[in-house]
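HUMAN:
Could you generate one sequence with tokenized structure?
ASSISTANT:
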Amino acid sequence: MTSLIPYFIRTAYKEDPTFIDAKIGFSLFDSDKFEGNLGAAYASKASNGINENIGPAAELADYKNLIKSGIKYADFVVRGQNTIDSDINEYIVQSEKRSITLSGVEPVADELHNFYKEIMEEESILAE
């Protein structure tokens, strides 16, 4: 359920001084996939009374829409590998958010360090 974290930071905690200028990353890995969906009541339960739409997961709380909801409220995306679902990749491209796909060649720490450094040096890129 980490896809909810960007949503909560951008909605419920948007006035919290800890998060006002926070840049939120969302990481995707194939190992996170699950089958089925979380049911029709998911969006109302997960939004916890927040009046802002939770994103694509409000329509159908399946894996793809949960991931898209996390991307919607994030500032940038880290893809853990090249095998991310094509529908999700297209959503990332359409969102025009900064993203990186890890090469899978060790060590990835240098790749991430350089990417995060670029992100932190940019002016505010807060999600809409």
Remarks:
- The first helix runs from residue 4 to 10.
- The longest strand covers residues 25-28.
- The chain has one domain: 4-121.
- The chain has a mean pLDDT of 79.
